[in-house]
Amino acid sequence: xxxxxxxxxxxxxxxxxxxxxxxxxxxxxxxxxxxxxxxxxxxxxxxxxxxxxxxxxxxxxxxxxxxxxxxxxxxxxxxxxxxxxxxxxxxxxxxxxxxxxxxxxxxxxxxxxxxxxxxxxxxxxxxxxxxxxxxxxx
Length: 138
Prior knowledge:
By secondary structure, the chain is mainly alpha-helical. 67% of the residues lie in helices and 0% in strands. The chain has seven helices and no strands. Residues 1-6 have low confidence and may be disordered.
């Protein structure tokens, strides 16, 4: 990673940890999911050594998303989380029931615009239905 980038802000690091937790909830961490998470990290700065150790521990010992949510406080980070967590389950071409339930759990516990959260619920529901219908072709 380039030296010009600032250290990854703690809030966006927490967001990456939540995305990792979503990706792991179906007991399968795909290369596509990892790429999205790493792209999020790269876009938002460099990880510190301490953050690298924490992320490595998260990979080996998945965390509950609700334990990680309190670290995401700004409206910008919450909006980014909603967008990214809508994409993570689709990245491996199939939205597992556990991924959908995890996204719902986050939306139920995230303090944010209710209209936006409802749209996110609709999106993940449609994405899950579509991925199931396409599963036999992909």
